[in-house]
Amino acid sequence: MCGYGDDSKWYWMVRIGNGTVINTPLGLATVTYRQVTENAQTGASVYDRYITIGGKTDNGTVITDNFPPGSSQAAAIPLSNTLLGLLLRDSYPTGINNQLKGANGDPSDRGDSSPYFFSRVFASSNNYVLIYKVNYPQTPTLTTVLSNPYMPQGGTTNITGSLSYPSGLPVLTTVKPVVLQYATTSTGWTLIGNATITSSGTFTFRDWTPPNQLGSITVRGWWNGDPALNLNMVLSGNQTLIEH
Question: Is the pTM of this model over 0.85?
């Protein structure tokens, strides 16, 4: 491998962690990994990560890239969309660091640009031993409100809300939207749409037409967090809409 201590062990960490179940604001998430051999002669492989929530699995995300790209001696290095890859990248020499960011234009390498939730507190003279301190993120407050929660069948309603710090001050960001969803049963959520947070920390999604269904419909919003603001992801309380 490249000579860094964890570079020769990370794939064992992946295998040990295969099938891990994590409690997230969106429900229990099962994380699984798949090894994909790209070159049968050299054995060069990459790993894909899959996340399953509520019985639905995403399309998978590539979590390694081969460095140097195209070389028969390429080593699979974790991308910055993994915690290990992000911390290792923060310690790489400048040459490797620059080439790994989007190497080969890999769209999967879309992790954070720096380890926002970690501060390095010690580095050995050769940078082989690194110790990081965890900067625990704040959990903001997200609200969602239905302008017409009790409505005739076929009507429309606006969904408004706000995102604020634990102190109550508004979160002033337009980078990541609030994702709005609805459910008509106890399992499975359907996308309503994305709402952009304004400079006042509020959002509005206008004229949503609920599914043409009598009875109770559950609506919620979630925000994916922003490490640059030291903010965790957050889920709003469920709102009930009644069509009659």
Answer: no
